[in-house]
Amino acid sequence: MTSETTDRGRAADGGSGWKGEPGDTSTLLGRPAVGYLDAAADTLGTVKREILRRLGAEPGRRLLDVGCGNGTDVLEIAGRVGPSGEAVGVDVNERAIEEAQARSTGTGVPASFLTASAYALPFPDGHFDGVRSERMVQHLADPAGAIAELVRVTKPGGRVLVADPDHGMWAPDLDDRDATRTVLTWWFDNIRNPWIGRRLSGLLRAAGLLEVQVKPMPVVLDGIAAADGLTGFSDAVRRAGEVGVLPPDRVRALTDNIAEREADGGFLMYGVIILAEGRKEG
Ligand SMILES: C[S@@+](CC[C@H](N)C(=O)[O-])C[C@H]1O[C@@H](n2cnc3c(N)ncnc32)[C@H](O)[C@@H]1O
């Protein structure tokens, strides 16, 4: 992403101040990062638990989270690996790391945090029993370069797990399919790799991982508040009108349609996060 106006006429920062550089979590699609990541963690609890299960967060293991944000997952892992293990989080965003460090202070769990880029992880080869990265690769200019680093710092036989949404799969329950498709495409094209979910297994195999598996996990946003919390869908509709992606009458119709659905049993939107994992040879 760039901070320039896109060819669809929407400022990439959504007018919010987010310039879209990889790692800038000051806002994400216009929402403040700290509150946004916490709300997303609640919505995506099932996804996070499945990642943990697959990663094998057991006592004594040394595990890494790349693009750890506020450190929610690192703290969870640290509680499971216990005093004989280690959980490390890295994020390119210093403010995210400061927040994660503040949250870990006084918890007594073996968690540590470092500001670092996924492209240059400050660890020796084979340092970790397993590595996870959730909803980061979607923002990267060079997904293959970052995944190569994840693999490098994983020990032979260890697991690498990458989870990202496929933003081409969002399905809001609305009547005007054409207008809905227009809004969705325009909004999510502001993410650098909106379709990365469907690329992940290929990327992991190309990085040399074995036994690569893909598990699509549903993300159910039940009610407009949930849809807005994770995807900013109401903002997308409103802003599509402001920048001329949709004419005002169709924006009004979509907005009314959301309200009708909400009043009549509840607005529903769903999508998918792809969990891709593989084992490093050895
Ligand atoms: C959507 S957030 C997800 C955070 C966290 N994984 C979670 O599940 O709450 C994406 C994170 O990736 C980080 N990030 C983006 N580019 C990065 C890079 N090149 N290296 C490390 N972290 C990066 C961002 O700073 C942000 O914290």
From TrEMBL:
UniProt biased composition (Basic and acidic residues): 1-11
Molecular function terms from GO: methyltransferase activity
Start and end residues of each stretch annotated as Disordered: 1-26
Organism domain of life: Bacteria
A matching Pfam family: Methyltransf_31
Keyword Cytoplasm appears in the UniProt entry: no
InterPro entries for the chain: Erg6_SMT_methyltransf, Methyltranfer_dom, SAM-dependent_MTases_sf
Protein name: Methyltransferase domain-containing protein
Protein species of origin: Actinomadura monticuli
